[in-house]
Amino acid sequence: MLPAPRVTKAKPMSQYNSDLLRLLDERGYIHQATDAAALDALAAKQVVPGYIGFDATAPSLHIGSLVQIMLLRRMQQTGHKPVVLMGGGTTRIGDPSGRDESRKMLTDEAIDENIASIRTIFEQILTFGDGPTDAVMVNNQDWLGDLGYIEMLQKVGTHFTVNRMLTFDSVKLRLEREQPLTFLEFNYMILQGYDYRHLAKEQGVRLQMGGSDQWGNIVNGVELGRRMDGAELFGLTTPLLTTADGAKMGKTAAGAVWLNEAGLPAYDFWQYWRNVDDRDVGRFLRLFTDLPLEEIGRLESLEGSEINAAKTVLADEVTALVRGNDAAKAAAATATETFAGDGIGADLPTLSVDGEGIRIGAALVALGFAGSGKEAKRKVAEGAVRLDDRAVSDPGLIVVPAAGEQLRLSLGKKKHGLLVAK
């Protein structure tokens, strides 16, 4: 059985000696650590390679993964080495953490394509190369794919007990809700622990980071390295990231907020951050931007309508970081034109409509303004929908744009899109 390691809470900022933990602490990243004092001492004297794992279930990650990507960026900013672990092997199994149902199986080709697409996100935010603090990306399929499963279970499985594995929240939740938990998924935590041991031996990795739901998996890896190799390894988790109203980061009523342009246009990405709750502005500026803390303090202290200026800064900074400066400038310009000009910004989301036209409710769903036809109908009934600034009262209205015509469809004051003829 793997005993739980000593858990330490974050110290006051002044007590940390390393730039890494000071930065993580002052910006609100630290939730739990296996031995914060020892990790702090290690980071103060040498380059620490640290990793976070990401599964390749889609061509893009969404903003729920952005805080983890920022952790790797913070490592690099303080002189340490970020290791991006892509779960080419574990994606074939599925992590039960935070999930109520089994994951769909993907082909090898689909997983490889997803990894290639996801890499572009990291290349935007991290610096890759061969230097001591340059980021690297590895794929656990490279070692899990050739690993004899029985041999691995003989060597590694004896250090795990089913008794303890059943106590993990990721497992208990599925069992309590009577949702199936396959034996394949149950093995995920063993393979993740093996990943940590492999990276520690082959690449000198000393730190694994992740969200709070990964605590059990991370602890397993720390203890597995100690038991099998006598290695001193560390784990660190971030707090569960929710918005001020309690919603989980990463999804909206209209769907996931994807990091890649192909998943979500830059304007919609920019608008997400521009429309965050007033109470989230300061926290998000600390987590997702490189702005100095003094400037963040000034921005989050703004009151009334002035807080909108801070939200615009947040949207500009995050969009520039994730999508690039040109995308951020274009999105901001479109927002200015939409709200202050003639309302036809160049970067508004666009829906092409065939000659038969489209019902107004279907258009709202297609643009991502409503999650379902029922929701779209309700928005029309509430008087929140306008077509070229004229209120729409009929949810069955069919819109047929003329050739070369652009019709602006709006939901409230913040969501705008264009309907154009095919």
UniProtKB/TrEMBL annotation:
A motif ('KMSKS' region) lies at residues 248-252. A motif ('HIGH' region) lies at residues 56-65. GO terms for molecular function: ATP binding; RNA binding; tyrosine-tRNA ligase activity. It catalyses: tRNA(Tyr) + L-tyrosine + ATP = L-tyrosyl-tRNA(Tyr) + AMP + diphosphate + H(+). L-tyrosine binds at Y51, Y188, Q192. It comes from the Bacteria. ATP binds at K251. Its EC number is 6.1.1.1. Its main location: cytoplasm. It is an enzyme of class 6 (ligase). GO terms for cellular component: cytosol. One of its GO terms (biological process) is tyrosyl-tRNA aminoacylation. The keyword Aminoacyl-tRNA synthetase applies. Pfam families: tRNA-synt_1b. Transmembrane segments: none annotated. Keywords: Aminoacyl-tRNA synthetase, ATP-binding, Cytoplasm, Ligase, Nucleotide-binding, Protein biosynthesis, RNA-binding. The keyword Protein biosynthesis applies. Catalyzes the attachment of tyrosine to tRNA(Tyr) in a two-step reaction: tyrosine is first activated by ATP to form Tyr-AMP and then transferred to the acceptor end of tRNA(Tyr). Belongs to the class-I aminoacyl-tRNA synthetase family. TyrS type 1 subfamily. Homodimer. This is Tyrosine--tRNA ligase. It comes from Alteripontixanthobacter maritimus. The gene is yarS.
